[in-house]
């Protein structure tokens, strides 16, 4: 089982001080964690051979190739490799199914809170992104060679300081479509939307059985990005509703006012109190970054491949829900990262565990390792069966099938995505 850490492609580490694997190992699996290049150094795409993009995803591909050659020396099976990850790590695992250069390197995927089609998942205009950050470093240019010199010669801390000044600073540089160069093995040659739309007809599509999990109010942790949320609140209070624009949507200039008005009427009917503003931002981020994109991805992946996708909603609230602990939330809902430490031990800051927490740890690690070993989380259906899409399993003390999360809000997002999605082809 190969774990890919999250952090919106901007920060993070696979260190065992964050991801202690003892709960998984107790089920008789080998766990591998890895690091990969991040931020500008992992995802700068200037459309030239020296900066073609997706270096971080290519690092993961290189690690998987190394495992194919070497994991047998650690008593591992190169013919039974499961990728799993949380947030952008789960999305990176999904990206591995979208490249013809990764076929045969892995056999299953588990994505916890990671999905295509979200604002933090894909950059449709990477040269523009590089140029935007360059302005903070004193260069106004879209010339790839000038930008390459800037990013190559500027000290790392200065580049990171310029990125930190941006909205949603952790997810500035993202995966993007690459140009093809003779001496570079491209990773992503088309957008996730196009690849999934064509499914098995697309030469890059490389589907494997998958588990995808979400929490009930993922956007709760958007409050942790202090600079971004305070900036958004100030702008909304001053009726600057451009703060609601989504990177994954390209809205024509003449339609922007109507788009922003619709979002305002849906999420911000009350902007007189900070509490109402924060609640609106949380709900908007939950819907536009998780609920909507996950529902569309699961549908497209299931319909356009011949492999199962198992869906679950993590709703258990216990002592190890890191997202809730970080946000000090009193809402009876689970946040982004809440499921993570029922799979791992956070060695840097050990979290308490009572009897109910231990039951969830046992359940989740059993499902994850069963899936890795057998391709099904419930290989013996006589003891209860987790059925694939369109079923949704709620993970709690009494697991049960439940309706999808807020389907009306998922379709609200989908309306805009089909109309304005940056990846959706226009006639």
Can you characterise this structure?
By secondary structure, the protein is α/β, with parallel strands linked by helices. It has a single domain (2-420), classed as Rossmann fold. It is built from 14 helices and ten strands. The strands form two sheets. An eight-stranded mixed sheet has the order 2-1-5-6-7-8-9-10, with helices on both faces. Helix 5 crosses helix 6, helix 9 packs across helix 11 (274-303) and helix 11 (274-303) crosses helix 14 (407-420). The relative contact order is 0.14. The model has no long low-confidence stretch (mean pLDDT 96).
What characteristics describe this protein?
427 residues; alpha/beta; Rossmann fold; eight-stranded mixed sheet; 14 helices
Kindly summarize this structure in a few lines.
With 427 residues, this protein is α/β, with parallel strands linked by helices.
What is the strand and helix layout of this fold?
Layout: E1 2-4, H1 22-25, E2 32-34, H2 39-43, E3 45-48, E4 51-52, H3 55-70, E5 82-86, H4 88-95, E6 108-112, H5 126-136, H6 144-153, H7 156-164, H8 192-198, E7 210-215, H9 226-237, H10 253-267, H11 274-303, E8 309-314, H12 322-327, H13 355-374, E9 392-395, E10 400-401, H14 407-420
Parallel strand pairs: 1-2, 1-5, 5-6, 6-7, 7-8, 8-9
Antiparallel strand pairs: 3-4, 9-10
Helix pairs in contact: 5-6, 9-11, 11-14
């Amino acid at each position: 089982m190969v774990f890919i850490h999250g952090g919106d492609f901007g920060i993070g580490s696979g260190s065992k001080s964050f991801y202690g694997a003892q709960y998984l190992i107790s089920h008789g699996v080998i766990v591998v964690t890895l690091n990969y290049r991040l931020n500008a150094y992992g995802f700068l795409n200037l459309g030239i051979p020296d900066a073609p993009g997706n270096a971080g995803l290519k690092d993961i591909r290189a690690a998987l190739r190394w495992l194919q050659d070497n994991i047998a020396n650690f008593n591992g099976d190169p013919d039974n490799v499961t990728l799993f990850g949380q947030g952008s790590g789960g999305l990176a695992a999904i990206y591995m199914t979208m490249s013809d250069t990764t076929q045969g390197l892995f056999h299953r995927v588990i994505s916890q809170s990671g999905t295509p089609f979200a604002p933090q998942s894909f950059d449709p205009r990477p040269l523009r992104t590089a140029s935007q950050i360059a302005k903070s470093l004193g260069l106004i240019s879209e010339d790839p060679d000038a930008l390459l010199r800037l990013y190559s010669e500027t000290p790392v801390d200065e580049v990171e300081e310029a990125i930190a000044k941006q909205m949603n600073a952790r997810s500035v540089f993202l995966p993007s479509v690459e140009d093809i160069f003779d001496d570079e093995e491209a990773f992503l040659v088309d957008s996730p939307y196009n690849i999934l739309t064509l499914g098995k007809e697309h030469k890059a599509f490389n589907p494997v059985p998958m588990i995808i999990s979400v929490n009930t109010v993922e956007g709760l942790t958007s409050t942790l990005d202090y600079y971004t949320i305070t900036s958004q609140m100030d702008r909304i209070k001053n009726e600057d509703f451009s703060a609601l624009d989504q990177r994954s949507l390209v809205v024509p200039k003449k339609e922007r006012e109507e788009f922003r008005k619709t979002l305002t009427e849906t999420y911000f009917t009350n902007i007189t109190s900070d509490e109402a503003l924060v609640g609106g931002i949380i709900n908007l981020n939950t819907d536009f970054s998780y609920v909507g994109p996950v529902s569309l991805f699961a549908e497209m992946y299931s319909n356009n491949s011949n492999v199962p996708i198992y869906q679950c909603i993590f709703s258990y609230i216990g002592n190890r829900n890191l997202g809730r602990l970080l946000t000090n939330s009193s809402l009876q809902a689970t946040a982004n990262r809440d499921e993570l430490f029922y799979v791992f031990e956070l060695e840097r800051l050990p979290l308490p565990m009572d009897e109910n927490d231990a039951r969830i740890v046992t359940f989740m690690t059993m499902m994850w390792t069963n899936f890795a070993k057998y391709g099904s989380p419930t290989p013996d259906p006589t003891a209860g069966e987790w059925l694939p899409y369109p079923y949704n399993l709620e993970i709690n003390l009494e697991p049960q099938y439940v309706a999808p999360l807020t389907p009306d809000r998922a379709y609200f997002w989908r309306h805009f995505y089909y109309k304005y999605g940056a990846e959706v082809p226009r006639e």
